[in-house]
């Protein structure tokens, strides 16, 4: 998959499917499932590193996980999140850090923010790096937003989001994540843009959807946002497997003869 497919899918009204992955094992499973776009999300700060938010994720973390995913899912478009403070301070830093993620194997990078970071996006795109935008509930601004809340409910907020979306399109972003925005607003933004909108908690009218892998597999349950659909219950399976293993070792049932060498 390439960024051109995002444009074609939008034209043909075909849904774009994106999911996060952070390591080679899951990247291979995602690829085997036929999903062709993987986001190495800075959500890894929460689901892999166990932190309360994404603010502590570093460029080194993102480079490491990007290498693991890109090395394993060669048929997928790998998009890497630019972590907090890797693009905010200056355009030069933004360009340099976007380049480092590409050298680690990413095919595109994602930045959070609207018109305020349009110059960063333009500069990154101008050196040949595809950029995905991210609007609405932008986790790197969790403190400024006063928590993980739906964005764009009020009319002035909604029109600002629409303007931001247009600014990102104008600055050369190839697609845009819309996180936790009301259905009607997501629909309006989707119709107003020629680039694909990828929703997460933004309803069914977006051009595609993205979910955090550990959420959809039922592995992460510290908090489950309303927009998550749990397609499997791997935490429950893991708990059951581990307690059976513990029990069998304690009772001398494992290893049995067939699991032993003679
Ligand atoms: O970090 C992430 O996983 C993301 C998605 C939730 C869109 O940004």
Structure, briefly:
The chain is α/β, with parallel strands linked by helices and about 260 residues long.
SSE order and pairing:
Layout: H1 3-11, E1 16-20, H2 24-32, E2 37-40, H3 44-47, H4 59-72, E3 77-81, H5 91-103, E4 108-110, H6 118-126, E5 131-136, H7 155-170, E6 175-179, H8 183-192, E7 196-200, E8 208-211, H9 213-216, H10 234-250
Parallel strand pairs: 1-2, 1-8, 2-3, 3-4, 4-5, 5-6, 6-7, 7-8
The site of 3-methyl-2-oxobutanoic acid has 11 residues, from strand 6.
Polypeptide structure, described:
This protein has 262 residues and is an alpha/beta fold. The protein is 40% helix and 14% strand. The chain has ten helices and eight strands. The chain has helices at residues 3-11, 24-32, 44-47, 59-72, 91-103, 118-126, 155-170, 183-192, 213-216, 234-250, and strands spanning 16-20, 37-40, 77-81, 108-110, 131-136, 175-179, 196-200, 208-211. Strands 1-2-3-4-5-6-7-8 form an eight-stranded parallel barrel, surrounded by six helices. Helix 6 (118-126) links the parallel strand 4 (108-110) and strand 5. The longest helix has 17 residues, at 234-250. It is globular and about 70 Å long. The N and C termini lie far apart (50 Å). 42% of the residues are buried. The mean pLDDT is 98. The structure holds 3-methyl-2-oxobutanoic acid (KIV).
Query: What is the terminal separation in angstroms?
Result: 50 Å
Ligand catalogue:
3-methyl-2-oxobutanoic acid
Tell me how many strands there are.
8
Radius of gyration, CA atoms, in whole angstroms = 20 Å
Number of helices: 10
Shape: globular
Structural class: alpha/beta
Low-confidence stretches: none
Overall pLDDT: 98
What strand order characterises the main sheet? Answer: 1-2-3-4-5-6-7-8
**Percent in strands:** 5-15%
Please give the largest β-sheet. 8 strands, parallel, barrel
Question: In percent, how helical is the residue content?
Answer: 40-55%
Question: What string gives the helices and strands in order?
Answer: HEHEHHEHEHEHEHEEHH
